[in-house]
Design brief:
Helix content: 40-55%
Number of helices: 30
Strand content: 15-25%
Oligomer: single chain
Radius of gyration: 37 Å
Largest sheet: 4 strands, antiparallel
Shape: globular
Structural class: alpha/beta
């Protein structure tokens, strides 16, 4: 039966089919290996996208790199687990549903907590799986049978267990502290969730009258509305300007409240007036000063950042409206000294963009230092390696300056804190399950704390909770620690650091199965509590001009639109080919278009192969060492390279050697996350060496006269098919769809595996390295390319065959060319080859190399007069361009104002003009103009 491949390569027609097939056949599902398993294990946790998410280029890059590495390990025989899931994304999801309610004219408080949470679950069921559906469309080879959601009951139970254990260990506490407060979300957020923007602001100087005197102390502030909560003025003990005021009081303007002058290093003599207002409820530094001096903490704002009753006559005003009123009244009453322009950094909520208000609030905190010490040691000792290396120091710097983590959020969607307050005695009970009575007074009126946990709290547990913790499971023994984490820099602290802290703390007693640990290459590692052995930080995807993508700039590239136009394989290959470690990717669709052409090249090569297979009646069978269907690549012992290959000719020896060297390079590159090197080596081999050279070289052997012996053609066809099979397997991790389509067509439903994804990945066989063959082929290629270049320079029509003359520098070079005369004549379109006895390098139309000289013996009949006229016009055009360039480069004003890249471009252009000028004059002299 003839092999069928459509004439045109249409990625949309094949990608959905194979993506569905991989899922239906559960090809990537991983049952728990039993005790006694000795195969190596590779485990990778997918950074769980938010249920609110849609695929963007960052996801596309991240998932492409993960899928390449996962497929590569799977094909190398590893038990390979890629765990998928989604994050409940507390703030983001609640915000999404609240926006829906606003459109209905409602607020969440209109529904009440229980109904609102039900509404969020409804939203999650309807919309929350969109990004995973997109992943499925992209063919991500995850284990869908193990898919999780961070609020699944088993994970929620584990979250409660962690919180309670930390509380029992004295590592969770509750207290009033200054937090970053988002008035829109009505919740505290962590420092990491605050983005800072430099803006042009104002600095106002306000004078406070000293009680019992005619003196004033002047202070400066960027937030005058907070002065309503001032409880002191601070001066420095070393500041002699204020020595006489130590122990005195000032009258707080507008509020007519006496507040003390305190001595504290919060005030620096060299900054401003040397005196500062102290507002313990609205500034973190003032809060600490307030604790040192036992100052009252007066909160003047509510959860919406409106002024509360403590603000007196300003109660009910929005904070910014209150600022205007306060400044107006200060000016009216003679307390406003000055208003100055001032550059300041404003913190905004990373989710909604609302300006953050530092606010005193009762929150739950994790005492982080004991956990951070373990996490720091894990990286410093090399138990966890971070790639690229520079991120290691960034991580350690952050760990050395870490603060206690505020883990409570004033939201309704999320893991509710497992703590209850007794209505009778106000005792707070922290428990795994809801208590029936108060442990202190026995009261039964208990109310659960309304706060939920920071989303990153639950996601920080995923490396072990997804494997069954807190129970000890076989999955943990096999798959923990995970092998690798591939993620973005922006969540190095949000997520990566917290996973390391939690893992090192809660998995201290864990031991990985020794046999699997040794087989996986981690036998030298002593710490099995770490959540992963390696972290790879991938680059950012920027636009073609290297600008960061943003909606405001209008330069966001939608990967789904790119895929629709060019196909998933071409998009993946683009991201891989540009993904050098530590270097951001300037995504350019022209590159993707080029890799779409690469896929088309592979497709056409496959059609050429099938045409010859069918024409010859060739029956291809996997070599006798092939595995049986259902057997995995890793357990079969099957050789992974090119099998059944006969090295009958120079080109066969050469291509086999080149394939093995490329396989070695690709495996080395993938082992160190040099995705760009792996992709480019495959590209150069498949397009250049395989398609452009090898296929052309074997065409004469594939062609035979009717009735003639076709054994040579059969050998050539067998080599072609076996090489194509191995090349598809080499390419598969990067371009999974086209390789699956062609590979399945090769086997016509009788493949030894259900998918090429389960076939063995090519490994280099050093016995098949053939340096002499590579050297000889390089000489022939150099000769053929030299002739092609000479033909182009002489403007010889492609169809015209020309004679060439060769001077070989050694007898063995002459013999090599003579032995391969047919290939040279055919590929360089040469009429005949003759050999000279002396150098040809001084002849016009000749090339000189280290091994040979070659001359194209071609006399073109030309109309000398017409050619001279043409060359003169060309010369005039060149000289005009040179004159314009010299005029600009000779103008000092132009050089002073023009951008350096423009000036450099002009200089390069002048150099090119000079070369063209010399070349044109030489041509004119040659033909006697």
């Amino acid at each position: 039966m003839p092999h069928e491949l459509p004439k045109a390569y249409e990625p949309g027609a094949i990608e959905t089919r194979w993506a569905d097939y991989w899922i239906q056949e559960k090809l990537f599902s991983v049952p728990t290996p039993p005790p006694g398993e000795t195969r190596p294990v590779f485990t990778l946790l997918l950074p769980p996208p938010n249920v609110t998410g849609r695929l963007h280029m960052g996801h596309m890059l991240n998932q492409t790199q993960m899928d390449i590495i996962v497929r590569w390990h799977r094909m190398r025989g590893f038990i390979t687990l890629w765990l998928p899931g989604t994050d409940h994304a507390g703030i983001a999801t609640q915000m999404m549903v609240e926006r829906q309610l606003v459109k209905e004219g409602k607020k969440r408080r209109d529904l009440g907590r229980e109904k609102f949470v039900e509404r969020v679950w409804e939203w999650k069921r309807e919309y929350g799986g969109a990004i995973l559906d997109q992943m499925k469309r992209l063919g991500a080879s995850v284990d869908w049978d193990r898919e999780y959601f961070t609020m699944d009951e088993n994970l929620s139970r584990a979250v409660r267990e962690v919180f309670v254990r930390l509380y029992e260990q004295g590592l969770v506490y509750r207290g009033n502290y200054i937090v970053n407060w988002c008035p829109w979300h009505e919740t505290a957020i962590s420092d990491l969730e605050v983005k800072h923007e430099d803006v042009a602001g104002k600095l106002w100087e306000i004078r406070y009258p000293v009680v019992g005197s005619a003196e004033f102390i002047t202070v400066a502030t960027t937030r005058p509305e907070t002065m309503l909560g001032d409880t002191a003025i601070a001066v420095n003990a070393k500041d002699e300007r204020y020595t006489h005021l130590h122990g005195k009081k000032v009258l707080l303007p507008l509020m007519n409240r006496e507040i003390p002058i305190i001595i504290d290093e919060l005030a620096q003599p060299e900054f401003g007036t040397g005196a500062v207002k102290v507002t313990p409820a609205h500034d973190p530094n003032d809060f600490q000063a307030g604790l040192r001096h036992n100052l009252p903490q007066i909160d003047v704002m509510d959860v919406h950042a409106h002024m509360n009753a403590n603000a007196g006559p300003y109660a009910g005003l929005d904070r910014f409206e209150a600022r205007k009123r306060v400044l107006h009244d200060l000016k009216e009453q003679g307390f406003l000294v000055a208003e100055k322009d001032y550059a300041l950094s404003i913190g905004k909520c990373d989710r909604c963009g609302t300006i953050i208000e530092p606010r005193l609030s009762e929150q739950w905190f994790v005492k982080i230092q004991p956990l951070a010490d373990l996490a720091k040691e894990a990286v410093e000792s090399g138990e966890i390696t971070i790639v690229p290396e520079n991120y290691k120091q960034i991580y350690l710097n952050w760990m050395n300056n870490i603060h206690d983590w505020c883990v409570s959020r004033q939201l309704w969607w999320g893991h509710r804190i497992p703590a209850w307050t007794c209505a009778n005695c106000k005792e707070v009970i922290v428990a795994r399950e809801a208590p029936s009575k108060c442990t202190k007074c026995g009261g039964t009126k208990l109310e659960q704390v309304p706060d939920v946990l920071d989303t990153w709290f639950s996601s920080g547990l995923l490396p072990f909770t997804t494997l069954g913790w807190p129970e000890k499971t076989r999955d943990q023994a096999v798959f923990y620690p995970t092998t690798l984490l591939i993620t973005a820099y922006e969540i190095l602290f949000f997520w990566v650091a917290r996973m390391i802290m939690f893992g090192c703390h809660f998995m201290q007693a864990h031991e990985q199965d020794p046999a699997i640990k040794k087989a996986s290459g981690w036998g030298d590692k002593k710490n099995d509590s770490v959540p992963f052995r390696q972290v790879y930080i991938h680059a950012l995807v920027r636009d073609a001009e290297r600008q960061k993508m943003s909606k405001t700039k209008g330069n966001v590239v939608d990967p789904l639109e790119v895929i629709e136009r060019f196909g998933t394989d071409a998009t993946r290959f683009t991201l891989a080919a540009m993904a050098a470690p530590g270097t951001d990717i300037a995504f350019n669709e022209s590159r993707t278009d080029g890799y779409r052409a690469f896929a088309n090249k592979i497709w056409n090569a496959a059609r050429f192969m099938f045409m010859n297979v069918d024409r010859l009646g060739f029956m291809w069978r996997q070599p006798s060492s092939a595995v049986r269907p259902g057997q995995s690549a890793g357990s079969s012992g099957q050789p992974s390279g090119v099998q059944g290959f006969t090295t009958a000719t120079l080109e066969d020896r050469w291509i086999l050697s080149r394939f093995n060297r490329v396989a070695a390079d690709v495996n080395d590159a993938l082992a160190t996350y040099r995705f760009h090197e792996a992709a480019n080596r495959i590209y150069d081999f498949f397009w250049g060496e395989f398609c452009d050279w090898y296929l052309e070289l074997i065409k004469p052997r594939l062609n035979f006269d009717e009735g003639a012996d076709k054994s040579a053609a059969q050998i050539a066809c067998a080599n072609l098919v076996n090489l194509f099979d191995a090349s598809l397997r080499l390419l598969h991790p990067v371009m999974p769809f086209i390789t699956e389509e062609i590979w399945q067509a090769m086997y016509e439903g009788k493949a030894p595996f259900k998918s090429i994804a389960l076939a063995p990945y090519p490994q280099a066989d050093e016995k098949q390295f053939d340096l002499p063959a590579e050297t000889e082929m390089a000489i022939l290629q150099d000769l053929i390319v030299s002739v092609r270049n000479l033909r182009a320079e002489l403007k010889i029509e492609p169809k015209v065959k020309v004679p060439i003359e060769i001077f070989a520098h050694e007898a063995k070079i002459a013999k090599l060319i003579q032995d391969n005369r047919g290939a040279v004549e055919r590929l360089a379109n040469v009429e005949k080859i003759s050999f000279a006895t002396t150098s040809l390098s001084k002849l016009a139309g000749a090339r000189h190399t280290a091994r040979f000289d070659v001359h194209v013996a071609y006399e073109r009949t030309i109309d000398v007069a017409s050619e001279c006229e043409r060359l003169k016009k060309e010369l005039e055009k060149i000289e005009k361009g040179m004159a314009n360039g010299e005029k600009q480069l000779g103008n000092p004003q132009f050089l002073a104002k023009a951008p350096s890249n423009v000036v450099e471009g002009l200089r390069k252009q002048q150099q090119e003009f000079t070369l063209l000028h010399e070349k044109t004059l030489s041509k004119m002299k040659e033909i006697g103009c």
